[in-house]
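ugh finaly. both done.
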Amino acid sequence: MKRSLTRVAALPVAAGVLLLAACSSGDGGGDDSGSTTIVFQNQFSDAESAEMDKLVARYEADNPGVTIKLVRDNDASYYDKLVTQITAGKGPDIVRLEPPKVSQYLNNGWLAPLDDVVTDETTGDYFANTIEAASKDGVVYAVPQDVSTLALYYRKDLLADAKIDAPPTTWDELKQDAVTLTGDGTYGIGLFGGWGAYEFYPWLWQAGAEVLNEDGTKATFNSPEAVKALQLWVDLQNSAMPPGMATATEDDVRGPFENGTLAMFTSGPYMVSTLRGDALSDDEWGVAPLPADQRSASVLGGMDLAVLKGSSVQDEAKDFLRWLMQDDVQTTWATDLGYIPVKQSMYDDPQFADDPTTAAFRDIVAGSLSRPTIERAADVDSALGDAVQAAVSGAATPQEALDDAVAKADAAIDG
């Protein structure tokens, strides 16, 4: 699932893990000739791989004797295999991780500090929440390579035809507008459960609910506020969404949005280049913050880069990351791939500031919250995602579904 939507796998901490993690990496390191190989393991898309190949070629040309070996693994068991590599002392040097993974790997002692990559002077260039999620005790252990969140995409033409002047900003407006936009084969909105809990987190937070208690020892997402959020989805499924949204994915709603039979759906900033590439005019669609209830919120996505503590070429790996995070390199990465900048300081650059859609994501990202980062976050995420699907499909009431999910999540956390 693209851009931080892969389900988070639990991280077993076996005896001796930290000793093993301190061993040298698999294929990376230097040799007698003085050359250095840095192994960079990732789950890039085809477009990202091609772009990184170009950037690596630039870096290697300016740094003779250094080779960046890109190892791409898009298998669903990527994280499980990575844990096995690390605990066997054969991990790569640089890894690409989902933000919730950073905290988990850090707690297991697997990450090297990056305070010389993101320094006191440059920390303010980034979104505070992206750095916060990758830090412990004031030390940064990962740097965001791309950043994502969920926003409301809407068809300007369909809203205008329905005499709706602007996209909804509250839940009440959303419910009213979605019903108004539904009829004659067209649906008001598509909120899909096929991505598990990721899509639902913003609505839970907007209602005033929390996923876990303060110390992360108990699940709390069966509160009255959480039930209210899930009931919203159920009500919209019954009144304004296409059938089958419980298990639908983004691909299932993007097509109807593009052909004009779906007025609104949620997606990330990467969708901008997709819609433009599919020949939709900017006059036909727009982007807005998700409608708010008790508060406004969205979910922090994206991918981070980290250096493993067991790497024998930490300094060289960090040097590459420092280069990669330079404004000119990040501008190339973002513009070539159609992504938004990871540094909030770059949004003032005219090539980003002059695009109202990109500019709109600046505030949405800044207001996004991080998903749970406890060791058993995968199980919490899975339980909540199953509850969303059960309630939206009608297999259980929101309260029943969430009560069952909290019991499963607590059992995993205790287990």
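ok and the 2nd:
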Amino acid sequence: MTEREPIGVVGAGWVGLVTATCFAELGHRVVVREILPEKVQSLRRGELPIHEPGLPELIERNGERLTFTTEMVELLDGPRLLFICVQTPPTYSGDADLSAVQRAVEEIGEPNGKALVMKSTVPVGTGRTIMRDAPGLAYVSCPEFLREGTAVRDFLEPDRVVVGSQPEHGWAADAVEAVYEPLGAPIVRTDVSSAEMIKLASNAYLATKISFINEIANVCDEVGADVTEVARGMGLDPRIGSRFLNAGLGFGGSCFPKDTQALKILAGNSGYHFQLLSAVIEVNELQKRRVMAKLRKHLDSLVGKRVALLGLAFKPDTDDMREASSLVLAARLEGEGASVVAFDPIAEARARELLPSVEMAPSALEATDGADAVILVTEWPQFVELDWAEVARRMNTPLLVDGRNFLDPEAVRSAGITYEAIGRPSLGDPGSRVAPGDARARDSATREMKEEAER
């Protein structure tokens, strides 16, 4: 492979590692600067701090092109494109914490001929501030659109590449466009502020779509419709599309909650009340709690009950626990007097730090031992293959709430388990306390769900 322009990356987190490794895959020599010495040492040994499918293989294949260091001087010695991939978590006020970005800019200084390429998600206006404070440094906004679990593919097969710059930094924008050219994706050339807004607006729109279908699911619960059929019929309309129309426990992770809140705060700080986003955020928070009423519908009180959570990560193929529905569910269950046991094939280590009172089971089947209810929280593929008849035998009360509408309802029902989902008709076993046809029981459950949503 022909050697291509060297690249510098600041930050060896999830975005930084994927960005650096994929650029190495494209033939670039990449210097990655990380401030934590222990992380640098681990990466030099080939040990990754994150779980991302396909990434270990790419790092092993491109090891000679990747350099990990704690020294800024190594980053500045060669590459002219410096990609900033540091975290910008929300502060207590909801605004983005830009301290890591500011530190990187200060350490880079203002060397002529270098361009700072912002991959980190930042508020609109960040680029203007940096260009004002460091006029000798060319600036390009190039937001990332990576999804955890498919980040390598998303980088190498992007829908689009956004490149935002000002006229005086056109050479830097041209250079960024050139490094992405082999991917064959559409290039959106725009100004810096528009590029920054594209990232926030994209995630906020997708979050809105998820909250909308969850609201439809809640109405389906009321009227007896099946949200999976509704979503299928909606998604065939090309103006709507089928993606992000999966009803469930709501969205989580490092992007949608943070970026949606960031856009709402940005609008508020500018004097505009973004009413739609306020509703999107509220719906998402309430959605995680509606499961409680579904449990009480069958179990009455949860005091002394044992509830198993299948999956803890916010989505499959990642160990990320940020804004995971499992965190809210575990806290609500324990708050109502239940004991919680859980299993996740990847995220257990991270989950232990956040859920110290939750018992971690060594397998999905063992998590169901003696359980009064099981909640499917994360749609890990292996849960489809569970022996549900064996699950029914192990459980104290064979009740399952499918929080992702992921399982085959008939397969679960035929195993003797009462099946509840999100926006789908429930399927009860012959011995269940609440039969599907019992209108009074359904009315009572509906009232409980409304009360739970208001808490």
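summary for the 2nd one i guess: The CA atoms of residues 40 and 425 lie 51 Å apart.
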